[in-house]
Amino acid sequence: MYSVKISSYFLSIFVVLFFIGCGSSELKVEKPKIEIVKEKAPIKAKIKIVKPKIDSTPKWYKNKELNTTSHYEVIAYAKAKSKEIAINTAKSNIIFEMFNKANKSSIGQIDMTKMYTLKQEQKDGEYFVALSYVNSDLVYKIKSSVGELTCNDNNISTYIQQTPIFKRLNCNLNIKLERQNKGWYLRYKENLFALSDDELKEFFIDKKNSNFDFEISKKNLVEEDKFYFTFKTKEKGYITLLDIYKNGIVTLLDVSIDIKEKLTIPPQEEGYSYEAITLKQGENTHDLYVAIFTKEPIELAIFEYENPDMTNNESAHKLGDLIDMLDGYEYSTILVETEAK
Q1: In the chain, where does the domain assigned CATH 3.10.28 lie?
Q2: In 3-state terms, what secondary structure has residue 106?
Q3: Which of 23, 180, 200, 309 is the most buried (most CB within 10 A)?
Q4: What is the domain class of 59-135 according to CATH?
Q5: Across the chain, where does the E strand assignment appear?
Q6: The model's pTM
Q7: Do 93 and 79 form a contact (C-beta atoms < 8 A)?
Q8: 128 φ, ψ (degrees, to nearest 5)
Q9: CA 228, 336, 174 angle in degrees (round to 5)?
């Protein structure tokens, strides 16, 4: 019993000492390091949904499918955010196209009243326009049709060289006036260009001659006005007088009238005068009077004296023949306007 008690005693002491020893020094228990790792969410790519861009350009604009109606018509296309800008851009494109077509030279006067809108359309905030311009200017017709011009012709009529059309060409081209199919044409080599009445008038010019004076008593006439012509020369010779109507008919008034120093046609000492008339009632007209001075009498059988049937006589339209002939003579011209009553 004794031994067992001792054993129990010592066991109790051991247990007590153990806990006392533990109490005298802090019991350190390391906590396990726990690292909390947050799982990253998978990165989602930013996907931008792009709608396919629909081309809203009208087919007629994209394909430039509007056709010209004549060789001298220019069509220009343009688009912009505003209608005004689109139209102004198209106008600029027309001028640029004309400039290139006329070999980068004169394109004549731009008549904005002849420029019009062929087609226009608005889509998705843009304006699409097509403008048309028919350039009726004769110089433009020639330069845009002939192609590369060689301005070195020498055999040019001295009369033609003084016409407005020749000066506006700014190029030595041997152009001629020609009558065909009851119409007037300008010819350059194998090219023919139909002339309007205004363009034909460009071949009616005032030209003075230093060797003799040629004057009219009244230049701006009213229908039924009386008038006459006076001549002064430095030497004896002969005066031939012709009248060219506005339609190109050539008439003889007097042929090879003797002149010493002064002359009137018709003779004023006998009280004669010409009377201004018009080709059509109520319509203004103009005439070109041509005086030719020669030292010897001449015959001009290819031209007729004025007669009532001349206006219906196609063979009397001989302005082109007269112009070709004038280079061989000394001549002077007067352009006279007549106002209808």
Answers
A1: 59-135
A2: coil
A3: 200
A4: alpha beta
A5: 73-80, 115-123, 126-134, 176-180, 183-188, 191-194, 212-216, 220-222, 226-227, 229-233, 237-244, 250-259, 262-265, 274-275, 285-294, 304-305, 330-339
A6: 0.71
A7: no
A8: -115, 130
A9: 125
Q: What amino acid occupies position 332?
A: S
Residue 115 Rama label (left phi>0; alpha psi -120 to 50; beta): beta
Tell me how far apart the alpha carbons of residues 112 and 198 are, in angstroms, rounded to a whole number.
18
CB 146 within 8 A of CB 192: no
Cα 250–Cα 256–Cα 259 angle in degrees, nearest 5: 125
Give the pair of three-digit tokens for residue 45.
């790519």
Cα distances from 64 to residues 58, 84, 88, 156, 297, in angstroms, run 10, 20, 18, 42, 65
pLDDT, residue 2, reads: 41
Question: What distances in angstroms separate CA 20 from CA 8, 78, 174, 326, one per listed residue?
Answer: 18, 104, 139, 152
- Look up residue 325 and give its DSSP letter: H
CA–CA distance from 124 to each of 47, 54, 100, 128 (Å)? 26, 10, 33, 11
List, for residues 259-271, the tens digit of each pLDDT value: 999 999 999 888 8
| 21 three-state secondary structure | helix
Looking at residue 268, its amino acid is: Q
- Class of the CATH domain delimited by 212-339: mainly beta
- Residue 339 in tokens: 């106002």
Residue 121, Cβ density class (10 Å: 0-12 exposed, 13-18 middle, ≥19 buried): middle
> In the structure encoding, which two tokens stand for residue 172, read together?
């030595």
**Three-state secondary structure call for residue 133:** strand
Looking at residue 241, its pLDDT comes to 98
- pLDDT (tens digit, 9 = 90+) per residue, 126-180? 999 999 988 778 888 888 788 777 888 888 999 999 999 999 888 899 999 999 9
Indicate where the chain has its CATH 2.60.40.1930 domain(s). Answer: 212-339
Q: Measuring CA to CA, which residue among 71, 80, 82, 75 is closest to residue 60?
A: 75
